[in-house]
Design the sequence.
């Protein structure tokens, strides 16, 4: 389970499990967007 929060021009996604965050990133990369996406590192 992940939670998304809009912060200005960014969307911050948080979750307890690293695997959940990686799954969310993979799902976003599989979609077509009209703008470039950037993924910042997350803490262990």
Sequence:
């Amino acid at each position: 389970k992940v939670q998304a929060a809009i912060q200005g021009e960014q969307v911050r996604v948080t979750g307890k499990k690293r695997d959940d965050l990686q799954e969310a990133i993979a799902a976003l990369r599989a979609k077509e967007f009209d703008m470039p996406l950037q993924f910042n590192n997350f803490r262990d």
